[in-house]
Amino acid sequence: MTQEWLDRHAVITVKAYPNPSAKYHETVCVAAITKEEGWIRLYPVQFRTLPQAKRFKKYQQIHLKMTKHERDSRPESYRPDELSIEAQDVIGSEMGWTRRWDWIRPTVNSSMCEIQQLQKTNGKSIGAFRPKAVLDFVIEDDQPDWSGRKQSALDQMTLFDERTERLEKIPMIFKYRYVCADDACRGHTQSIIDWELMELYRNVRDRAASSEEIKAKIRQKYFDELCGPRKDTHFFVGNHSRFPNTFMILGVFWPPLTDANPDVKGSIQKSLFQ
Fold first, then answer.
1. What pLDDT score was predicted for residue 154?
2. Which residues of 43-63 are buried (b: 16+ CB within 10 A; e: fewer)?
């Protein structure tokens, strides 16, 4: 069957941290929004081998051609034509977050529980929502090296392109614990896989004196600041292709309350001892 290639204008919302792949050497899963489809997942993207001019940033507008992913049944999944990618303007926050909200607001669901229910009924696999209360930001130690299959994929990558710096394994796992706005919500604990978070780890690691200092600085950013009392924090979430009931936090959207919804009051952080 002939592939239908769609000509689209999209805004990038998330780049997940690269993952070693036996087939593609190394891939990045990208979440974006189009006016036509709403949420889309672009996969695979061999981001670190793209020409510099095509390496898009968060909230950057891009033009591309994409087709429905033939091996991924999730409705939001598309295969991009990497050669067609044209990086355009970045939607900055210098003048406020209004332009970003213009893209995000139409995609927002009422809760994580609603997104999980929609996954069961129509296969929804990407969404955005405002948590009712963020209870904690958990940091767990992880293995310092890639597993055998992923290590082999990286070895092949080195042979494939000697110009690409070897992908570092981040030896920590980051998770949010929260409750969403659904009245029956019993709470959620989900990993966050945003590339920005992993880069923060690398930057802090290079300056910090200990593992505990690294964790404290990352927690200050992702819990105290991004989920603080002056932010209208939303989570971007997506599920796993092989485990559709398993959702991960792809990224955090954290506009000031005055730029988002002035009717929303107070912090979404909640004391663990309340």
1. 58
2. bbbbbbbbeeebebebbbbbe
